[in-house]
C-alpha cells in the first residue's frame, strides 16, 4: 500500500486483481427492483443495471452490492428466495446476469451478491417437499418443524415473537388434511428457517456460493448472519426470560440466545472461508449481524467472513462526540481482528439519512421514528430492539434542507474514514425518505404485520428518478412498482449531472478524490478545541473537518479539495464537512 497522497493512480486491472480490494472499497448497494427498468413492466431488472454501468463508473464506486435478484414471490422484497441458483424471471435470466457481471468488471467494478441463508421462501422446492412429507421425514429435517404444545398440539412450541410481528411459529396442515406441526420463521411466515444442523443444508449453500463465485461474483453480503444456528432444546425459554437476560437493547453478550448470535454459526463461516479462499482473488464476505459490539469481531475475523457491518453511525444522532467515539472504537475493533471497518448511513431497511437528520432532535430521531413514538421501546425488534429502523417520519416535522446538508456532511466524513463505505442507491441524488406512499400501495410485510405501528421500509425503496419527466421519471417506460412523488423531478440524475454543487456532482467528486487520496488505514484525531467540530488526518496530508455546531469554524491551512456545502468567507459553516489537502 502506498503512503503518499500523490501516488500514481492504479489501473482498473491492478485494482481488480488486488486481493485487498475490499478493505477500503466504496460499495454501492443496488436494490434491483427499484434501480432501472429496461422493459417497462414497472420493475427494475438486470438489463436495467447493465445499461447503467456507465453511470456507476462515472460515480466512481469500487463495487456494487446487489440485493436479492433470485426468483421470489416478494413476500419480503426478495429476501424470500425460491431458488438460490437462478435469476427471478421478472428481473431477467442467468445470461443477463453474466452480461451484467461482465459489464461491471469491464468497468473495473466488483460485484457483491446478497446471500440469504437463514431462511428460504415457502415456495422453495424443499419447503414444498417438507409440507408434502410426513412428520419426522428427511424433507422436514431441512427446516425446523416441532409439535405444538397443548392437548392437541394447538399451541405454538414457544411464545417467541417474529421480527415482523406475530409468533415465530406457524402451524401447517398435514398432507392428510389434519392440523399438524409448526415450523419456525424468525421473519415473515413466508420465510421458513433452515435447519443448519442438517449437513444437506450446509452442502447446498456451499454449492450456491460456488455457483455464483464461478459466475464471477467477487463477494457476498450475508443476510442475517447472526441467525442460522439454533438451540431449541426443551424447555424453550419464555420470551420474558430472554428479555431479562439481554444486555440492554444490545443483545446477548454470551451467545446463549436460542436463535441469535450463537457461537456455532462460526463453524459454518469457517467452512465458507475455505471455499472463498480457493478463488483468486479470494471471495470476500460481509456479515449483516445486529449483535452486541463485543461479539461483532468474530464475524469479521479472517477465518470467518472477513468483514461485518457496523451500524453504529447509522444509529447515532448527528453529534460530534458520538461520531468520534464510534469511529475510534470501531477502528480499534477492526484492527484487532485484521478486518477493515465498515461504515454505512443508509440501506434498504432504514429511513434514509437525509430524512433522519432533518427531524427534530430527540430520543428516536436517530431511528427515523416519529418523535412521539419510539418503536424501539414499545416493540423490541429481533434480538436487540433497535436493529430495525422501520417506522416513518411525519413529513410536517421534517426540515428538508437541514436533513440534506447534514447528510452530505456526514457522507463526506464517512468517505474519508479508513475502511469500506457502503452507499445506498439514491443517496447520491440527495433523496430523502418517501413518506407519501398510500397504504394501498405499500409492499413491506412489516407494514401489514404491525398495523398502525410501522409504515415499513417502502419509503427508501421507491424507484430512482433518472429524468425530470416521463411516466416514471426515466426509471422505465411506464409506471413504477412503487409510486414516486412529484418532488422526485428535482432530484433526477438529468437535473444534477454537470450542475456545480448538486449532490450527484458532490458524490462524484468526493469518490474520485477518495480513490486518489486513500492510502494506509491510519487515522489521527486533531484536537479542535471545539467539542462540536471533528478533525482527523489521514496519511499523505489529507484532513477532514466536520462542523456539527452552529458557528463557522476556521479550516486548517491547505487546499480545500471538496466540501459538502459552500464555505462562508473561507470558513466552514454549520453542518458542513470539508477535505483539506496540506500543501506540499
Ligand atoms: C435482512 C434484510 C432485510 C430482510 C431480512 C430478512 O435484515 O436486510 O431486508 O427483511 O434480512 O431476510
Ligand atoms: Ca423490468
Short description:
With 584 residues, the protein is α/β, with parallel strands linked by helices. The protein is 26% helix and 13% strand.
List the helices and strands and how they pair.
Elements: H1 12-17, E1 26-30, H2 46-51, H3 53-59, E2 63-66, H4 94-106, E3 110-115, H5 125-132, E4 145-146, E5 169-173, E6 179-184, H6 199-214, E7 219-222, H7 239-245, H8 265-276, E8 284-287, H9 296-300, E9 306-308, H10 312-315, H11 320-337, E10 342-344, H12 353-356, H13 375-378, H14 400-415, E11 420-424, H15 445-449, H16 488-491, H17 493-496, H18 503-517, E12 524-525, E13 533-538, E14 542-547, E15 553-554, E16 559-563, E17 571-572, E18 576-581
Parallel strand pairs: 1-2, 1-11, 2-3, 3-7, 7-8, 8-9, 10-11
Antiparallel strand pairs: 4-6, 5-6, 12-13, 13-14, 14-18, 15-17, 16-18
Bound molecules: alpha-D-glucopyranose and calcium ion.
Calcium ion binds next to loops.
